[in-house]
Specification:
The complex is a heterodimer of chains A (307) and B (257).
Chain A lengths: L1 E11 L5 E11 L3 E5 L6 H8 L7 E6 L2 E2 L4 H7 E4 L11 H11 L4 H14 L15 H13 L5 E5 L7 H16 L3 E5 L3 H7 L2 E6 L2 E7 H6 L3 E8 L12 E6 L2 E7 L4 H10 L4 E6 L3 H17 L1
Helix pairs in contact in A: 3-4, 3-5, 4-5
Chain B lengths: L1 H22 L1 H4 L1 H22 L1 E2 L2 E2 H31 L4 H4 L5 H27 L10 H25 L5 H15 L12 H7 L3 H14 L6 H25 L6
Helix pairs in contact in B: 1-6, 3-4, 3-6, 4-6, 4-7, 4-8, 4-10, 6-7, 7-10, 7-11, 10-11
Classes of the chains: A alpha/beta (307), B mainly alpha (257).
Organism (chain B): Catenovulum sediminis
Family (chain B): Belongs to the ABC-2 integral membrane protein family.
Main location (chain B): membrane
Chain lengths: 307, 257
């Protein structure tokens, strides 16, 4: 069963800006799905349409088989939304915000209070439950929005850049939280600019650019398309020249070697050549996240072909 | 099941709205008490004693229902206009828009909050009035129904104002330039029968005349206008504004892209 089906979705804003140019997308139930794209690509407009904050121009959207045109309330009841910008009342307390939100979904106050303890503890906000939201840090506000979105126990959680501006420690704890939620059966759609986040969390991915889906596949297949992977090697000594036959290489400085390994080549070949030249390698790392490399290439390629 | 959910949603909006104006009670409940005390002191005790009787009642007795109504109108209107506009401004109105809450429940929740505040303020002003006048009640049913209908009507007006408002200035334009003149010329401080014939005719176009007079009838048993006409006007305007508010929010005016 599909958690989300989008057919030929178009959105033209007042003034003629064509934000969505007929996108088609499906997300299977239980999936952890990444919707990526550069700024202004149409990600937030798509999410806005799904959550009924943006009126679509045309097209069809179904959430767990409920068309938003004729059973909007049912469709909404399945969705939990974590928007990009803070959109809670800054003067209400943390617990009031999450309990009121549950009430809008028909969750009785008594049950909502019990759930608030569960989700505020899971997001490390329980100690702050009586603080006005304006007193929270940026990271805490992001977690508050996740706790709020979970209060009616949605089957589809949509997160629009949930970890923006959050430090790495909290980001990793949020990843763990989201992974656990997904394992419990909740379908998750994630947009993010942290591509390592998408790569480590998501199983399937769509890339949107200029209102069109330019890639829609599994993360594994997409990463398989990466024809070249760039590595940075930290060397143990000073080197003036290193020549490699197995791959393209460049000595960035006397201690750093950059190599581009093509698909099919192995690290063994690389290290054999380096050993033969008595080059000692202290450590190695990817120059960029693999998904990041692909993302940049796909978006740039899409723009070149459009030109 | 769905209707039960809507009821829970309505209670949640009401809870949030009441919590909002009670949290800032110094700004919401105290000022009308102080303002109305001043009205009673200045117009009732000091000037009123020189005015003499109006329609057979002392001036302070005559004025008292109108002053309560004045406070009810202002508070019902300003509560909803500021609350809904703040929700738009801070974008927390999105909490409601993404939830499976029908528009009429959202309207009822916000209007309900305005009505509750207006009723509390009306009660506070009535308590203040007790220091200046012996309150008599002619028909409690008329008092209560007029108060509630008027509060609903002006709360709806405040909501529509907030839907269209783009800045905080926009929510003070209607109260300043339309609501205040209509209220002060709406028979709070004078009887319509005191006006020249032409202005008596013009005043019939002011809907607040009907509310103030119906409310005054509840206390004193005397009114410048027919009670049936007053309730017809109240119910008519309320229905028109309710359907207008629901239509505007359904279309997403000012709240959806």
């Amino acid at each position: 069963m599909y958690a989300l089906e989008i057919n030929n979705l178009k959105k033209v804003y007042k003034g003629g800006v064509e934000a969505l140019k007929g996108i088609d997308l499906t997300v299977k139930e239980g999936d952890f799905f990444a919707l990526l794209g550069p700024n202004g690509a149409g990600k937030s407009t798509t999410i806005g349409v799904l959550s009924s904050l943006v009126n679509k121009t045309s097209g069809q959207v179904k959430v767990f088989n409920h068309d938003i045109d004729n059973s909007l309330d049912k469709a909404k009841s399945y969705i939990g939304l974590v928007p990009q910008e803070f959109n809670f009342n800054q003067f209400e307390t943390v617990q009031q915000i999450v309990v009121n939100q549950a009430g809008y979904y028909g969750v009785e106050r008594k049950i909502a209070l019990q759930r608030s303890e569960v989700y505020l503890k899971q997001t490390d906000l329980w100690e702050k439950r009586n603080s006005p939201a304006r007193n929270l840090s940026g990271g805490m506000k992001r977690r508050l929005m996740i706790a709020r979105a979970m209060m009616h126990q949605p089957k589809l959680l949509i997160l629009d850049e949930p970890t923006a501006g959050v430090d790495i420690e909290i980001r990793r704890s949020m990843w763990k939280f989201l992974t656990d939620i997904n394992k419990s059966g909740v379908t998750i759609i994630l947009t993010t600019h942290y591509l390592e986040e998408a790569e480590s969390l998501c199983r399937n991915i769509a890339i949107i650019d200029k209102g069109k889906i330019i890639e829609n596949t599994s993360m594994k297949q997409l990463l398989g398309k990466l024809s070249v992977e760039t590595f940075i090697l930290d060397l143990d000594d000073d080197y003036q020249d290193i020549q490699l036959k197995c791959c393209k290489s460049e000595l960035v400085d006397s201690h750093t070697l950059q190599v581009e390994l093509e698909k099919g080549s192995t690290l063994n070949q690389l290290f054999s050549e380096l050993t033969a030249q008595q080059v000692k390698v202290k450590s190695m790392r990817n120059k960029a996240n693999r998904l990041e490399e692909l993302f940049v290439r796909l978006v740039e390629h899409g723009r070149e072909t459009q030109v | 099941m769905i209707q039960a959910n809507y009821w829970v949603a309505l209670k949640s909006i009401l809870y949030k709205e009441c919590n909002r104006f009670l949290r800032i009670w110094v700004q919401t409940l105290v000022p009308p008490a102080i303002t109305m005390t001043l009205y009673f002191v200045v117009f009732g005790s000091l000037i009123g004693s020189r005015v003499g009787e109006v329609n057979g009642f002392s001036y302070v007795e005559f004025m008292m229902p109108g002053l309560i109504m004045l406070a009810v109108i202002n508070n019902a209107y300003s509560n909803v206009s500021s609350s809904f506009f703040s929700a738009k401004f801070q974008r927390n109105v999105e909490e409601l828009l993404v939830a499976p809450v029908p528009t009429y429940v959202i309207v009822a929740g916000y209007v309900g909050g305005g009505v509750i505040r207006a009723t509390i303020v009306g009660f506070i002003v009535s308590l203040v009035a007790l220091f200046f006048v012996d309150i008599q009640i002619h028909n409690f049913g008329v008092i209560l129904s007029t108060l509630l209908l008027t509060a609903v009507l002006f709360a709806l007006g405040g909501l529509i104002n907030a839907v269209y408002a783009k800045t905080f200035d926009d929510i003070s334009i209607i109260p300043t330039f339309i609501l205040s003149p209509l209220t002060y010329l709406g028979g709070v401080f004078f009887s319509v029968s005191m006006l020249p014939d032409f202005w008596q005719g013009v005043s019939q176009l002011n809907p607040i005349i009907y509310m103030v007079n119906a409310f005054r009838f509840g206390f004193l048993g005397a009114s410048d206008v027919s009670l049936t006409l007053a309730f017809s006007v109240l119910i008519g305007f309320t229905l028109v504004l309710f359907f207008t508010a629901v239509t505007l929010i359904n279309k997403g005016i000012g709240i959806r892209s």
